[in-house]
Every structure is written in C-alpha cells, then in structure tokens.
Design a protein that fits this description.
By secondary structure, this protein is an alpha/beta fold. The protein is built from ten helices and ten strands. Belongs to the aldo/keto reductase family.
Length: 280
C-alpha cells in the first residue's frame, strides 16, 4: 500500500492522492510557512494542505513556487488542498472563495477543495458550488472536513457527486472507528488532521514501548498507524528535522497486535471543536 512518500490512495473518481502530506495549520504567513512548504517539497513531500482561514495561502503559494524551482518538479507533481471557510458557505460565495484561494496561492487549479465545517443550513449550498467547480474541470477532487456520519448522509442524499474525502480530527485518543468504517463503505477517503494531537501523545507509555520495539519515534508510530488503517495523514511541522522525521515511516510495519493496542487507547477525546456543537 504505502511504500514511500509518493505512494497514493485512489479516490473514487480515479484521482491519485498522496497518503502523506504537510499540514500548515498555525504555520505563520511569511517566511515560516514559505520555508516549511519549500523544505517539504525538497524532502519528497508531494501533498500540501492549507485553508482560507489559516491566512497563509500566499506563503504556501510562494513555498510551492520555490520548491518547484529548486527540485525541477512541475505543478502536476503536487497535490494541493484548500478549504472554504464558514463565512463563505453559500453557492455564490463559495464560488468566489475558491477563486480567492487560487489567487492567493497563485495557482490555476486545486487538487482538492473541501468544505471546512458542516455549518447547519449552509453546507449543502456550498456542496452544490463545489460540484459546479468540479463539473467545470477547475478542481481535481472535492470533499468535506469535520463531517460526521449524519452530515455525510445529508449531503449524499441530494449530491450529484459524493464527497471524495472527509478530513477529520483523528489520532489514538479519537480513533473514529464508526466514521472510518462508514467512509470506507462509501468510497470516501478519510484524512487525519492533528494526527499527533498537537504533541499530546508523545509521552504515552504504550506508544513509547511500541516505538522502542521498532527503533522509531512515537510520532512515527502514530503516523504509521494512520496509514495502516487506510487513513491519509498530514502532520504539521515547521522544523526541517521534524518534517524529515515525520516522513520516515515507510521502512517498518506495525503488527496487528500493536495496531489493536493503539486502537484501545481511544477515549473519544477531541482537542478541536465537536462538529455537532460549534458556533463559528
């Protein structure tokens, strides 16, 4: 399945999405985000995930241009994701938000565009807009973020195109097993944001023990656990050493017993908002 950093999952429309990418949530606009994106591309990353609300799309775009120039890769070698923010959910406003993200990134198209949160009464109109952008061939794939099963069912009821991706909070304390099973049954690729729980699991004794067995870091074990569950993962880092370390997970495999031990750490504990109870 995941042999190297360029290995891809096939979305239900045939588009190839890298299993592993760089998240840039909280990476500051300017040199911090530019450097992390450029470094990731130089280190073999092919997938970069941003969002309008991160307010760093311009820097991401610059990092992409610099990374391409330094590696000789072309735009088509990369997989770039952004997301429409809640204030822009609506048919026309979502279309406009897509154009605004492209302009900031300096790109002609995105590989994946997501609805960031399931705002009640608004996300279905936004989905119609994503379908229109997709039908026009202006985006390679469309999906959602932070959608629970009932949100997905609601969208799919009227959708012409069902979501290709659902990006959610996913880590050993929130393993979302029912949601993962639902997405797999409906050919929706689950993707993990905050896979390392913002560093909150790095001292966990079970994870440290498993990491020791493989001569790996706890972060590497968690990211490998994502992949072995068939979940795309996008850890955020701005440090070059961590960007390299996070991606060094293709030379070992967790046993089924180790996977089960990690699964059993689940507490349904979130660090982000609850998709059924948020007010922004």
């Amino acid at each position: 399945m995941t042999r190297n950093l360029q290995s891809t999952a096939t979305l239900h429309n045939g588009v190839q999405m890298p299993w592993f990418g760089l998240g840039v949530f909280k990476a500051e606009e300017g040199s911090e985000v530019v450097d992390s994106v450029r470094t990731a591309i130089k280190q073999g990353y092919r997938s970069i995930d941003t969002a309008a609300i991160y307010r760093n799309e311009s820097g991401v775009g610059r990092g992409i241009r610099e990374g391409l120039a330094e590696t000789g890769l072309s735009r088509e070698d990369l997989f770039i994701t952004s997301k429409v923010w809640n204030a822009d959910l609506g048919y026309k406003s979502t279309l406009a938000a897509y154009e605004a993200s492209l302009a900031k990134l300096g790109l002609d198209y995105l590989d994946l565009y997501l609805i960031h949160w399931p705002v009640k009464g608004k996300y279905k109109e936004a989905w119609r807009a994503l379908e229109a952008i997709y039908a026009d061939g202006r985006v390679k794939a469309i999906g959602v973020s932070n959608f629970n099963i009932h949100h997905l069912e609601d969208v799919m009821k009227d959708a012409k195109v069902s979501p290709m991706v659902n990006q959610v909070e996913y880590h050993p304390y929130l393993s979302q097993q029912e949601l993962l099973a639902f997405c797999q049954a409906h050919n929706i690729q689950l993707e993990a944001w905050s896979p390392l729980m913002q560093g909150g699991l790095l001292d966990h004794p079970v994870l440290r023990e498993i990491a020791g067995n493989h001569g790996k870091s706890v972060a590497q074990v968690i990211l490998r656990w994502d992949l072995q569950h068939g979940v795309v993962t996008i850890p955020k880092s701005t440090k070059e050493s961590r960007i390299i370390e996070n991606a060094n997970i293709f030379d070992f495999e967790l046993s089924s017993e180790e996977i089960t031990r990690i699964d059993e750490l689940n507490r349904n504990q979130r660090i982000g908002p609850d998709p059924d109870n948020f007010n922004f």
